[in-house]
Amino acid sequence: MSKKSKKVRHILSLSGGKDSAALAVYLKDKIPDLEYVFLDTGYELPETYEYLKRMRAILGIKITALKSRRDFDFWVNIFRGCLPSPQNRWCTRKLKIDPYEKHIGSDLVHSYIGIRADENRDGYFSSKKNIIPYYPFIEDELIKSDIIQILEDSGLGLPKYYSWRSRSGCYFCFFQRRHEWIGLYDNHPELFEKACEYESNHLDKRLYTWIERESLKQLLARRDSVLSGIFTRPVKKCSSKSKKLCDRLKSIHFSVDDGSILREAFSSNKQLSNLKEEDEPCLICTL
Ligand code: SF4
Question: Does pLDDT of 2 surpass 70?
Answer without folding.
Answer: no
